Fold these 2 entries.
Entry 1:
Amino acid sequence: MEQLLIISPYESNKIRDRADRSPWITIHLYKAQSNQNNPSLDKLDLHTIPVRYPVLHVPRALIVQLNLFAGQLYIDAYDDYLEICNFLGIAAEVITEEMAASGWGIAADGFIMSDSNGGVGGDSGLTTSPLKFIKMLMTKIRRNGESIDKTDMGSLLEGKILASSHFQN
C-alpha cells in the first residue's frame, strides 16, 4: 500500500539518512510554482532521494490539492483547472440561459449555489464558498500580502472563468 505524506524541508533533512537506506521511503522535492517563467515541479520527479524507478505516479486530484494548499499561482492545463473548480465547488464555465432555467445558480465569486439537481457546491461536498479562505491563504500566508491578481489563481479566486484557450496544452 502506497502512502503519501507531506513534510517540511526540516523534517525531510531529519529522515534523509533513513530514506537512503529504506526500500519504502522516497523523498520528493516540491515547490509551488509562483512564477510563470519557472516550470511546474508538481510531477514530483525533479529530485528524489533515493532515485527510484519507475517514477511515482500520484493521482492528479491529489497533485491539484497539493498545488492549491502550497500556493501554486499558475495552472498548467485545462484539465487541472477543471479539477480545481470541481474541488472548490465553483463553476468552470459560463452558465448559459438554459442552465439557469434548469436550476443553476452561481454566487458572485463563482461558487455553485445550486446545480440542476439542487445541489450546492457541485461535486465538492462543500456547502459554502471556500474562496475567501483560499485567497487569504494564498495572499496573506503564502505570499506575505503580495497581490496575486495577475495570476491564474488570482483570476480564478476573483470569480473569472478561464477558457480552455488560456492554457498552453
Note: Residues 9-166 form one domain.
Entry 2:
Amino acid sequence: MLDPLGIALPGMSRPRLPVGAGLPANIFRYVVATSAVHQALLSLLTIIVFVLDVVPLELQRRAVNDLVEGRAFRRVVLIALGYTGIVLVQGSTKLGLNVYRGWVGERAKRDLRRRIRAVVAAPPAASPAAEAQGIASAMIVAEVEPIGGFLGESISEPLLQCGILLSVLAYIVHIDPWMALAAFAIFVPQFVFVPLLQAAVNRRTGARIQVLRRLGIGVIANGEQKDPSGRLDEQMIERAFALDMGIFRLKFTMNFLMNLGTHLQVIAAFLVGGWWVYTGRLEIGSVVAFLSGIGRLTDPWGDLVNYFRDVTATQVKYRLFVNAIDRFSGSEPAPRAIPG
C-alpha cells in the first residue's frame, strides 16, 4: 500500500484520479511555462537597476576630485543633486522590481495550491488513510512557499547580481586597469574554492531535504505501527543533524574565505592606488570610487552564491512536489517504498 507521497504504508490504498498534474519535471521549465512574459519584464527592470548602479560611483569620483582640486562648490552641489536623483530613480525601479517579483511568486503559489486542490482525493474521513493523506497534503502545501518564492526571482535575481558584478568590474577597469588587475588577482581564488564548497553544500542540502521528507512520512508510519520503536525516526533525526552541521561548517568557511578576499582587495587598492596618487599618476577620487566599487562587488557575489545554493534546494523540493501530485492524481505507476 502507498500513502499519497508514494511511500508504502499499511492499510492505505493509492488514490485514483482521472486528471494528472501536468507539471514539467524541471522547475525552470515551469517558470517559462507559467510566467515567460513576466520574466521578460522583470529582466528589463533588472537591467535598468544594475546599469544605474554604476552611476553613483562616477559621481563620487567627480565630487571628491572637485573638492580636492578646489573647484567651485556649486559643482559639488550639482553632483550631489544628480546623485540624489539617480538614487531615487534606481530605488524606485528596484522597489517596483521587488514588488513585481513578489507578485509573480505569489501567483505561482496560487497556481500550485489550486493544482493540489484539484488532484487531492479525500478518502472517507474515518479511515486511517484520511489522517495520513491530510498530513501529507499539509506538507506539500508548506513546500509551495519556497517554490513560489524562488519562481519570482528565478531569472531576474542572477541577472541582477551578474549585471552589477560585470558593470562594476568594467567601471573599475575603466578607472585603472592595473589596479583592477591587482584586485582581480586576489579575487581569482574564489572561483576555485567557492564552486567546490558550494557543490559540497548542494549535495548535503539535497540529502537533507530527502531525509526530512522521509522523517515526516516516518511519523505517519509509526502511527500505523510500522516502526513502533521509532528507531528509524531516530536514525533520520541524527542524519539530519549531521547534514545540517556539515552545511553550517562549509557555508561559514566559505563566507570567511570570501570576506578575507574582500579585505585583501581593499588592502591592495590602498597600496597600489595610494602609491599612484603619491606619484601623481592617479587622482584620489579614482581611489575612492575604486574602493566603493570593491565594496559593491561583495554583496552581488555573495547573493549569487546563495542563489545557486537555493537552486539546488528548490529543484529538489519541486521534484518531490511534482512526484507527490502525480501520486495523488494516479498519473504514474506506483513507485517502490523508500528504503529505511
Note: Residues 231-278 form the longest helix (48 residues).
